[in-house]
Amino acid sequence: MEGQSWNFKMEGRPDFSMAVIEVPAGQTLKAEASAMAAMDTNVKMKTKFKGGFSRFLTGESLFINEFTAEGGNGSVSVSPGPPGDLFHVHLNNETMFLQNSAFVASTMGVDVQTKWQGLAKGFFSGESLFLIKCTGSGDLWFNSYGAIIEIDVKDQYVVDTGCIVAFTEGLDYNITKVGGYKSLFLSGEGLVCRFSGNGKVWIQTRQVYPLAGFLNAYRRVQRSSS
To answer: Within 10 A of 79 (CB to CB), how many other CB atoms are there?
Structure first.
């Protein structure tokens, strides 16, 4: 069953996406904890502890839910927490890397594990020190904040560090600054990821930190009485 993609459909794209996945009889779908929105009654769920301390450090859930269709095909609807898009790829003995919060669901043939970025790449990017490494054969669903755009990289490509959702193995990447130090600290720009090689990169059209900065001006401030 891992040689072909499962049947599924996307609802609500690209703002509030949900994937409705048909799980073949006797097969199992694994999903991030709390991603399940609905399922057929013949689908049985088990919760498993996954990854231990490394998943705790990434901010991922320490638990993975497994959904098995018993007595026939069963439908499972998965919906990520943040508003935004969902994307599907079918891996054929391949490897992809996701940002630490992007994994939503996969078939059992895809091994999902945390991968250390390296101190310089993670620390100086202002992003997580970890990536999620997905390896094997099967279906993989991942999410973003905002819409997802797929880009074919040939030779080199530059992406803001906060816009990276996923990329394929074989692409090398380095965190660098664009412009001088004045741009880095004053313009809101400055740190980018420079990809090199041949592969694919998926980027998101929105970032969480600029939204938080925008909303901060409207937060309620309690004034002390004098």
So the answer is: 20
Phi, psi of 64 (to 5 degrees): -120, 135
Structural domain span for residue 198: 8-215
Buried-state track 1-31, b at ≥16 Cβ within 10 A, e below 16: ebeeebebeeeeebeebbbbbbbeeebebbb
Residue partners of 125: CB distance under 8 A and separation at least 6: 117, 161, 175, 191, 193
Q: What is the pTM of this model?
A: 0.81
Q: 175 and 193 in contact (C-beta within 8 Å)?
A: yes
Q: Is position 135 within any domain?
A: yes
Q: What angle do CA 77, 78, 84 make, to 5 degrees?
A: 125
Structural domain tally of the chain? 1
Q: Each residue of 36-92: pLDDT tens digit?
A: 999 999 999 999 876 554 544 544 455 789 999 999 999 999 998 888 999 999 999
- Please report whether residue 221 resides in a domain: no
Backbone phi and psi for residue 188, each to the nearest 5 degrees, phi listed first: 85, -5
- Residue 219, classed as helix, strand or coil, is coil
Query: Token pair for residue 186?
Result: 């004053």
Contact 76, 3 (CB under 8 A): no
* Helical (H) or strand (E) element with 82: none
Provide the pairing of β-strand 28-32 with 18-23: unpaired
- Tell me the C-alpha distance between 153 and 63, whole Å: 34
